[in-house]
Description:
Protein name: FNIP repeat-containing protein
Pfam families: FNIP
Number of domains: 4
Organism: Polysphondylium violaceum
InterPro entries: FNIP, LRR_dom_sf, STK_FNIP-Repeat
Keywords: Repeat
Largest sheet: 22 strands, parallel
Number of helices: 11
Strand content: 25-35%
Oligomer: single chain
Helix content: 10-25%
Radius of gyration: 27 Å
Distance between the termini: 43 Å
Number of strands: 24
Structural class: alpha/beta
Amino acid sequence: MTQLFNLVWRNQYIRHLIRNRVCQNILKRVNKEYLEENHQYLALFSKRDKVENNIRIRFNGDASDYLDINNRDRDVINDIELIIKADFNFNEIHDGVHTLSLKFKGTPAPGMGQLPDSITNLTLIYNDETTIIQHLISNLPCKLIQLSFVNDDCIQSKCILPHTVTDLHYEGRYDSMKWLVVPPKKVYRTCTLELDSVESFQWLLENKFIGKVVIHSGSIPVLKSEKLPSHVTNVDFLYGIREPDLLLPHTVVRLCLNYGTPFSHISHLKSLIIQCDYEIKLEKGVLPQSLEDLSLSYDQPLELDVFPPSLTSLYLASFNQPLNPFVLPQKLKILCLYSFKQPTFFANSLPVSLTVLTLYEFKGSFDHCQPLDNLKRLRIDSLVPSVAGLLTNVKKLDLWVNTKISDPFGTCLVNTSIESLCLNINFKSTLYPNSFPSTIKYLSLDNVVIESDNVIPTSCTYLNFNENFEPKYIPKSVRYLKAYKNQ
């Protein structure tokens, strides 16, 4: 086996492929010292390697620290989060950077230099300074794909978007939006217009690149006589606006509104958020059959066939009623019941399709539930013994527990066959033997204290933790050990 490995590893092409595959989708944070010590290894990744395999080598810090890095070491960085002052020259940002986030501080200044054309993802953050923003948007990198403005209404001069841009994250009123020069036939789904007047509505009709609107009370009169144009597929209402006579177009895909505005007729709706309490009983046919994601505050009994079978995500903020069998859609993947305090779940009340389950206040029993074999993420108030029944066949789990664990006899997890576990406990807890199953291989612990032998099973080969463990409590089977501190 060793001879075969050596033969393969001597082949530079195969070694190159293995290196890229192992580091695929990785994010590595670096500073000056790390770059000086590890340049020879980071330099093995070409610019093309990093793009094709989503390998991100990120520097995060002040501009002065970035400029203090020599050019040879700087060239391996392709992802930068930078805090800059007014006198920063953008020519200093090296070619080869693909992702750039700039945060401005200090006094207003006109800006100097130009960003490299290698940048494909640009994020701009400012407080009161917009002068430098105007300088940057006057000549954007020609290969830009995603452009994000964290602040609203900051565009105050002509901004010509390259034809390569597919994602524009910006929100503003039309007197700011009018400065955007957009290639023909472009629609940016996350470009958001504050619809607050008749004038802004008329501008929206003429500018078809807008994919999202936020409806203010000032635009309600015109919307009662005219529908939103079809290029708008994402609609938010300001909190508190209720308009029972307002008919939105069938083309809306995502809708965030207040109870009282009609939505049942929207045949293509996929995502629905109802901000106020839903005050009447939900009945079959009220929710569009196309719906995939639903979030609402509702606390009345639920009946069969109320939810469309297409639903995959359900967030119920105030629901605290008995949950009857087969009420939830059988393809549901994400379920969040923030206020559910019933004593138990009935058999077949939780669909086996669930991958994410959040129960912040539930302290009852899962004894009647069938195993949730597809579960990947579980958020619960306390680690009650019956949790083990849900996890009978789960191999990999991200588990968050709200209350302190302090049972000297261990936890119910010992009765599972989990192999990879990330355990996060909201309050610092001391764990004892019989806390983990003998099948565990990968273990990540947050807010966990270990003060005795045999807590970590000898099957464990990878251990990640944020508390100080004495080495004598870590089994020799652990080959990869990583300690970190909460920030």
